[in-house]
Each structure stands twice: as structure tokens, then as C-alpha cells.
Design brief:
mainly alpha
């Protein structure tokens, strides 16, 4: 089973040191939240189809604003 949890590449952000640091912090926050949701899923009680749906939904969780 696979899932794609795409996040913006913080290394591609240009700007001040504070803006770049925010980009890395935001990416970390998104991944941390998604992993936390994943590890708390009731894996034993989910069918494969239901688990795939949950994984896909996690990938939509906590998406960052698109850069201006």
C-alpha cells in the first residue's frame, strides 16, 4: 500500500532567513501532523480499501498555503 503526501520543497524557498526558516518549520509541521494521524489509525479494524482512503485523506491534511 502506498500514499503520496506531497509537501512544498522548503529548500526551494527564496527570501529572508526568517522566510526560509518558516518554510522548513511549516513542512515539518505538516509531516509531523500527518505521521501522527497515521500512527493513531486503528489499523487492525480497517479494511485495505478503508486504509487506502484514510491514507489518501491524510495527504490532504494540513496543506500549506501556496506561495505568493
Amino acid at each position: 500500500m502506498t500514499a503520496h503526501w506531497g509537501v512544498p520543497d522548503p529548500a526551494a524557498v527564496e527570501g529572508t532567513d526568517a522566510e526560509r526558516a518558516f518554510a522548513f518549520d511549516d513542512t515539518y509541521r505538516m509531516l509531523n501532523q500527518r505521521i501522527s494521524i497515521f500512527v493513531n489509525l486503528p489499523l487492525q479494524s480497517l479494511s485495505k480499501l478503508s486504509l487506502q482512503k484514510q491514507l489518501d485523506e491524510i495527504g490532504q491534511t494540513a496543506s500549506s498555503k501556496e506561495p505568493a
